[in-house]
Amino acid sequence: MGATHDHSVARRPGLPAVPPGIPAVAAAWSRAGRAMMMVNWRSSALIPRLREFAAGGTAAVVFGLASTNLLRIVSNVTLTRMLASSAYGAVGVLVSVSFVIAMLTDVGLFDFIVRHREGEDKRFLDQLWTIRLIRGGLLTLLTMILSEPAAILLDKPDLQPVIAFWSVTFLIEGMSSLSFATAPRQKQVWRLSLVDFFSGVAGFVASLSLALIWRDYWALVVGMFATSVCKTVMSYVMFSNARRSWNVDRARMAELWGFSRYIAMSSALTLFVMQADKLLLARMMSLQVYGYYALASSLALAPISLSLAYSTRVLLPAYADVVRRDPAGLAKAFYDYREKVALVLMFGGGALVGSAPLLVAILYDPRYGAVAPFLSLLAITCCLSPLADSSKQGLIAHGETRTTLTANICGASWLLIGGITALAIGNIMLLVAVVGTVQVPTVLSYWWSLRRIGVFSLRRESYGLAAIAVGVLLGWLISTGTLYLFPKI
Prior knowledge:
Blueprint: H1 22-55, H2 57-79, H3 85-104, H4 109-115, H5 122-153, H6 160-166, H7 168-175, H8 179-185, H9 189-214, H10 218-237, H11 250-284, H12 287-325, H13 330-363, H14 371-378, H15 380-397, H16 402-425, H17 428-436, H18 439-452, H19 458-485
């Protein structure tokens, strides 16, 4: 027979017997204690991680862009009830003209400073600040000269005074410090975000106050001017060692041009890709109808600006640091650094495509219902911008500045072919659709370049495309269902 096993608790002679069940209870308490210790350890490890995230560049960018875009929405919701859509049409024309002039002289100053080994040297920064100030003065003079021809060309002659007035902002921005480029290198992205936010508040207060008095587009223009002035002042107040001195250096100018010549040509094409539709539609549409298009562009700008700020203020410095230490490390760091934020942005862009009718119905009164179809089409760009922006910064960090030119040639070709087709058949909405999808060839071009340097991963890119599809479907379901149940929303 097999030996029997005694499960009673063994005890040494002279000691009282341990009551049944006590060992099990003790073991349970022990397990519970270990579990609590594990929870406490994880909690203690989680808190520093949360603090690190909150202090990091990603959180700063998210806060800054979320707060400024929320402020923009509040401003639009408030001021559209005080101003006609023609006011936004006038501002849209103004922004397009100024953007055209600025991009024609873009030399990639931000990228140059972030990547340069002397990026924090005072003499180096003084030289670049001088270049930027000279550029700002020349742009102010050029815009004043072109204000009347531009207004006539767009068939909006009444806007000549406002274009001339706005030209001064080029000089004001040229006078600002270079903190927009040095702060990301010094891990001071939070301060940049606060500058953007408080400048936006100043502009909103100015616009709201003046709209109560003037009731026309000058309220918006002066508000934007106040934002520019406030941002320039705060670029010195919020950052130490921000004071700059005049220092002209021809060798530095030549070095800057050698780095940025492809970026300059790329910027000219970016100008064509981003503004050709606006300038063309501004001439074809009345200020009232163009105001709807401008409002849709403003709403679509929110996630696009978040993507751009994240890629330039967080990803580019991070990628550049990786490349400086180990160029081969970019292959892994590229997706690891961008993925979480990019997926959220792409999902949000998809949701904006699907929910545009509901969003417009909530934000604006019935006079602005025509904004919705414009927004649905323009929001397609929001979905693809995180892919394009992060790819561009990864390639620039790797030294592939020429790829930005190639990508923009692809985008310009798409816009040119599609735009001519839309105009030939007389369909304005087709032209808007072409504009909304202009990032498609750009992204494909960047993917080809990433593949060439051994960084591209189709599997990792597919995650983003899936996030866009889910966002579109969910946004459409919520919008359709809500408007069906509450048609008078």
